[in-house]
Amino acid sequence: MTLEGLGYSVLACVVAVVLDRLLGEPSRWHPLVGFGAMVSRVEARLNRRDGSTVGRGLLAFVVVVILPLVLAVVVDALLPQPWLMVVGAVVLWLAMSLRGLAEHGEAVAAPLAAGDLELAREQVGRIVSRQASALDEAGVAAAASESMLENGADAVFASLFWFLVAGIPGVVLHRMVNTLDAMWGYRNQRFLKFGRVAARVDDAMNWIPARLTALTYALLGNTRLAWQCWQRQGRVWDSPNAGPVMAAGAGALAVTLGGPAPYAGGIKERPHLGQGPKPGAATVYRAIALVRRGVALWLAVLVLVALLALAAGGWQ
């Protein structure tokens, strides 16, 4: 990446975060809504309800990814600066969702703090797949806090990472793969084989961003506890990326997350994450603040690196 390219990339990240802060997610005509509709149609045509093959899943993956990715590559290759920076900032804004993440978390924390457990259950049911009606106050707070920490990695930090690494094609590919994993990555008869390619590619693309996110959480919270929880607990979680992120986040917040959780099929036994008291409404707010501070840290580091590179270039 050239010095000019680095400067424009960092500027695009800053602009995208500002757009997200001011505008949030578009309420209409969001590209991901259209992409999700296309994904559903392709899956309906290619997947068998009684279980399909990995080959069919691979075909479906290529069908839904190839055209948007080619378009992103063409735009990235042909647009001159500074237009590429402008389009990149808009694409990154559409791909990330810091404000939306915070709004979903606050919608759970506010009624929980006010003692309205039923409304808190209703709101947390919008962002997690577990059986919200069976959750007590601590369970609701844990579910929302875990969602803030994990989706902070998937929907915010990974988008920034892939934009910096591979520009518009990188962030577009990551957002598509992450969406496919969310829609097809279930370990049931219908999706176990069909969604395997999407799940594995998502794991691969999120491996580095997840660990950078875990490091970010550790630096901005209880660092020693976060590191210990990351190393001891992260590896036993069933997701290779969510484990380090949530273990480090729980340690950074010095609370206990994870543990058994109710789902439609029954209680799912999960390891405990973190160390400390049970979570409450304040934990959800603190998890949101941790993600926000992490984004501020990333932007500050990026701006500093760009300025140092510019200064070094000027001295030569």
Could you name the key traits of this structure?
two-stranded antiparallel ribbon, 316 residues, 4% strand, single chain, 73% helix, mainly alpha, globular, two-stranded antiparallel sheet
Task: Provide an overview of this structure.
Belongs to the CobD/CbiB family. It is found in: Cell membrane. It is a multi-pass membrane protein. The chain is built from eleven helices and four strands; from the N terminus they run ααααααααααββββα. The chain has helices at 3-23, 31-46, 54-78, 83-95, 98-113, 117-124, 137-184, 196-220, 223-233, 242-253, 281-315; strands at residues 256-258, 261-263, 266-268, 272-274. With 316 residues, it is mainly α. The protein is 73% helix and 4% strand. The protein has one domain. β2 and β3 (266-268) form a beta hairpin. The chain is globular. α3 (54-78) crosses α7 (137-184). The mean pLDDT is 94. The two termini are 17 Å apart.
